[in-house]
Amino acid sequence: MQLNDLNLFIEINDTNYIFVAGKHDEDQNFKIIEKIVTTNKEININKFTDINDASNIIKKNIQLIEKKLNFVFKDVIIILDVFELNCLNISGFKKLNGSQVKKENISYILNSLKLKISENEKQKTILHIFNSKSVLDGKNIENLPIGLFGDFYSHELTFFLIKKNDLKNIKLLFNKNNLEVKKIFIKSFSEGIGLIHQNKTETFFKIKLDKNNSKIIFFDKSSFRYSESFEFGTDIIFKDIEKICSIDNHTINNYLFDKPYKLKVLNKDEFIEKKCFTNKQYRKIKKKLIFDIVEARIEEILDIILYKNINTYSFKKKSIKIYLFVKEKLILDNFNEIFRIYFLKNGNVNHDFVNESQDDTIFTNTAKLSAYGWSKEAIPVSQSKNSLISRIFKYIFD
Description:
The chain is an alpha+beta fold and about 400 residues long. It contains nine helices and 17 strands. It is about 35% helix and about 30% strand. Strand 2 (about 15-25) and strand 3 form a beta hairpin.
């Protein structure tokens, strides 16, 4: 990326396309110059439903930006917050028998793992590779142990994959508009980098609860090591209340709007007020019942996402930082204490509620990643014919 050039970024999520044009100033800070947010109706359940309509929307908004800036873009950097993504953690090994760890040893391990992924995941392609762990003779090494003597070396990588057909459709979408897809970033990666910069914490879980879906990500010493999405969100809490109490969503919202559970002592015999039943027949429903319903469902959600999730078992530590974002304010304002108590019950005293990452921050973080890379991300470089790999991963040997 040329730092003095205008650059185009587009975020694709399940509801919007977000177009951003910007450039780095003389202090190498990325400045957003133009931004357009438009509705995305062409993606449903992680699939494009109409590539032509999507292409027309892309074309229309890029032309608006190009006309305003008097500049024609040739490539684009994509931020993905949609489509099914998978991650794999896999280790490679090298017997040293008392010799030094050499660059060639690590290069061989890295290429072997990449080849193994390609052979076993033929319907998928690699988006990101992260250096996750280096172990020499059973001891974790923070930096690559090049030059050190040992008997046995292992190197763990984390691969993030996307289905090849989804990637083909993304590239087709922008090729139809004469744009080369220069790089694709997973939005969760940029969000995690933002938390690292903001809080100076390099190891953490972040749980994100939206209305109809949820997500957990894990960073370990600044390496993006895990991400998993779930097809449920806080809406199931409201559905539980509706079903068990036989009241509609409007009544629930009326009741929770006054924040009846925030910093108040709960009277187990107290009923919901009649004023909450707008144009509905009043029902005597105990406030404690609703609290119990919500508590049970929140604990179940946290169990599925984190505490009883076998995929996160090896990452869990009692001292680990947990960030929680809850999009539904009625849930957060009334029941944040339930989350807090359940974290404490499971030994996680180090937890914080966080706000949703702002669009501008995401684009700024992504621009920095595009320009300067990330110390824990490994980027494959092609092999020379007549020599060993001179450079397998950018930044890895710096």
